[in-house]
Amino acid sequence: MNIQKATIRGFMGIELVEITPDGAVVQLAGKNGQGKTSAMLAVIGALGGKKELAKAMGLSKDPGDEEIIKRGEQMAEVVVEFGGWVVTWTRERGKSDKVEIRGTDGGAHGRKKLGELIGAIAFDPLAIDSMSPGDRRATLLEMAGIDLEEIDGRRDATYQHRRDVNRDHKAAAARVGEPVKGAPKKAVDALALEEKLEDARGLCVRNDDQRRAADMLDEQVDIAQERARNVANEISRIAAADERADEVHLGELENMKRRHAAEVESLRSRYKEDSDLRSAAIDEANASLGRLGKDAEERAVSAKAATRAAGKLVDPPLNSIKMEIESARATNKLHRLARERNARFIEARNLEARSLGLTAELEEIDAEKAALLAGAEMPIEGLGVSDDDVTIDDHLWATTNFSRRLEICVAISAALAGELAIAFVRSGGNDLDAEHYAALCGECERRGLHLWIERNEPGEGAIVIEQGLVAS
After folding, report:
1. Which H, E and C letters describe 100-151, residue by residue?
2. What is the four-CA torsion angle of 66, 67, 73, 74, rounded to 10 degrees?
3. Cβ 70 vs Cβ 59: under 8 Å
4. Are the C-beta atoms of 95 and 83 separated by less than 8 Å?
5. What distance in Å separates the CA atoms of residue 422 and residue 414, rounded to the nearest whole number?
6. Could you read off the pLDDT tens digit of each residue along the chain, which spans 472 residues?
7. Do residues 60 and 8 both lie within one domain?
8. Do 329 and 433 lie in a common domain?
9. Is residue 264 part of a domain?
10. From the CB of residue 251, how many other CB atoms can be counted at a distance below 10 Å?
């Protein structure tokens, strides 16, 4: 189905243009600024709507009145007729677009029906060749009905995750270090050695206490013996004093006998009392001496036994135990360092395993993606996609000759077209030499595309537009 007639009034630079195509190619010719681009944009806007028009005009938003309606006019109107259908598009200043679609039955239809008729119009097949590789790839995937967003999202997330894991693995591997030489398989019970040292110190304290007790018993024996000697000396002193007293009293008695016979009896009585007291003191001293001697003997026996027992005491080797503890600490340090290194080694090994697992996930995702792409229905045999661009016969787009690329572009346009199979080529038409222009026209006709193309220099059958009107 081709466009049979297009009538344009007051659109951009167009005053009034009627186009009645004759044949498979509609060539709009004329110098720049005369209205040929306006005529093509008018048909694009009427069929594709304001979003397609904005895209064709290179705008990021819907075009306004000043960009659409010819200066001095109040309204722009485009009427497109094809296969019994009539599409009437109007824009009045200050108002929204209006689209009226009437079918062969004369009934009114909505733009949804128009969309079914025209499909996803590829307005400029040559634009596919000038697209960025990413946009060209996206266009082809959309045409094939393949949405790789979810798969690519999963792959990107997995790839980023693997990159992070590899970074962590590299850092972890650098932290592992060399094996610890001389590290024991298990740690020494240093706490038990500490308790052993404390027990040994307690035994040493108890031994010292026992030795001091023995020394105190020896001192007590010396004190008792000294006391006994003092008592014996006191007895000797008393006895000597008693002898001297006897001599004195006897001398006095003889003298008194001579002087005072009457006092003799009194002196004798006093002497007897003194003598009795001294005898009692001597007896008490002798008894005390006996007790002290017995006590000294008993203390001497105890002291001898204590000294003999203290002599048998053996202090534990504190320095040896301390050295044993220091050795255990050094051994445990090696064990701890080896354990820490082993933990770092395990961490690095686990990260490596995670990286390998993520690599396997990436391979599965790539296989899933490859299967999806392999099952895609392409408009022409040999067409495919790489990670970055479209491929032709397994060759990159840029390395394929232009004639083959031109064939592919037309094939993609034809695949995107609906019942109204139309392709619009704008500025790219001026870049085609005679050979490639003929090839484009022939390929569009072969694939059933109604080609509308802009050319500065008019060819055979061209519609020439000058100052917004059809000149010829």
Report:
1. EEECCCCCEECHHHHHHHHECCCCCHHHHHHCCHHHHHHHHHHHCCCCCHHH
2. -70
3. no
4. no
5. 8
6. 788 999 999 999 899 999 998 888 998 988 888 888 899 899 988 888 888 888 888 888 889 989 999 999 999 999 999 888 899 999 999 998 898 988 877 788 877 777 777 765 555 788 888 889 988 888 788 777 788 888 889 999 999 999 999 999 999 999 988 888 888 888 888 888 888 889 888 888 888 888 888 788 778 777 877 877 887 787 788 777 767 766 766 676 677 666 665 565 666 676 677 667 767 777 777 777 777 778 778 877 887 887 888 788 888 888 998 998 898 889 889 889 999 999 999 999 999 999 999 999 999 999 998 888 777 777 777 888 887 888 888 888 889 999 988 888 888 888 777 788 888 888 788 888 889 989 999 989 998 888 889 888 888 888 888 888 888 6
7. yes
8. no
9. yes
10. 10
The separation between CA 211 and the C-alpha centre of its own chain, rounded to angstroms, equals 68
Give the dihedral sign, CA 87/92/97/98: negative
Task: Note whether 156 and 242 are same-domain residues.
Answer: no
Tokens representing 423 are 């392709």
Q: Which two tokens stand for residue 440?
A: 């484009």
Separation between Cα atoms, residue 274 and residue 241, nearest integer Å? 11
- CA pair distance 108, 96, nearest whole angstrom: 19
CA distance 98 to 76: 11
With respect to residue 182, please indicate whether it lies within any of the assigned structural domains.
no
| CA-closest candidate to residue 118, choices 417, 454, 436 | 417
**Does a structural domain hold residue 190?**
no
Query: Are residues 47 and 417 in contact, defined by beta-carbon separation less than 8 angstroms?
Result: no
List the domain range (segments joined by +) for residue 345. Answer: 148-176+319-375
Are residues 205 and 152 part of one domain?
no
Same domain, 37 and 107: yes
| Same domain assignment for residues 282 and 234 | yes
Task: Say if pTM beats, i.e. exceeds, 0.85.
Answer: no
304 and 393, same structural domain? no
Q: What's the length of the chain?
A: 472
Q: Are residues 271 and 367 in the same domain?
A: no
The structural domain count of the chain equals 4
Instruction: For residue 186, tell me if it sits in a domain.
Output: no
